[in-house]
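Suppose you are handed only these lines of text.
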Amino acid sequence: MVAYDDIAEWYDQWVGTSPMHNDPYFSEVETLMGDVTGQRICDLACGQGRVSRYLADLGAQVVGIDLSAKLLEIASRHEMELPMGIEYLLADAQNLDVEEVGTFNGVICFMALMDIPDLTPTMNSVARILHPDGWFVFSILHPSFHTSQSGELVLPEGVVRTIRSYFVEGHWRSDTRTGPPGKVGAYHRMLLTYVNALTDAGLIVERMSEPCTIDSFTDTPSLSGLKRPVWAEVPAVLVVRCRKDTPKQEA
Ligand SMILES: C[S@@+](CC[C@H](N)C(=O)[O-])C[C@H]1O[C@@H](n2cnc3c(N)ncnc32)[C@H](O)[C@@H]1O
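From them, the structure of the protein bound to S-adenosylmethionine can be written out as follows.
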């Protein structure tokens, strides 16, 4: 059973129709990607295709990949209404077949790695489909500040993010959150698990961003939970850029 199939229509409504540049977290992603014009890019775990469409509009050649047939149906509907040359493929990020998807200058994975159960094969897939020297940019709920037992305390001196169970990795689901962690849950991993899995796959971290963007939100429903004052104290989201490390041939 694919979790996002059950909530595909809800997810489509929830992300809304506001362009990606209105999402301050995507702005950070865009900065770390750099100019994408003319590049062949894989939008990994593309969902209903909002990032794919944005990148295609910037002049990239985009292949969107997702495990949810229902979300891909919505993405394909958009592509039929306004053709942008985006190719959508139903596949599991944990075992992408390089023959099937070709090779890419870059892979983007926007707010989705925490939805994928197994990180190591996913990182290996990314490395496999990238050109030598290709880039990988992703954003995730910041693993230091979202765990199975994280919350907020309002104290006289201000709001405090509370974190327990940081060392407990695995699936969790929130009873109170209105976004995907409350609907389908998420996988928590320690920061070191991310960095070690990237390094083991030959993806070298070049740059990171921990944006404090509290003042720049619009009224997009998917961003309302990230508008709270606590996110001016600690970062809600982590953005990372990696470069595929291809061993140089001996002369
Ligand atoms: C929070 S959504 C993000 C979607 C999209 N990147 C966006 O920003 O709207 C997480 C996505 O991860 C996808 N996903 C989960 N597990 C996956 C897997 N193993 N392979 C590919 N996609 C997967 C879900 O179907 C869903 O579309």
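What can we learn from it? Residues 4, 15, 45-47, 50-51, 66-68, 71, 92-94, 110-112, 115-116, 180 surround S-adenosylmethionine (CB under 6 Å). The radius of gyration is 18 Å.
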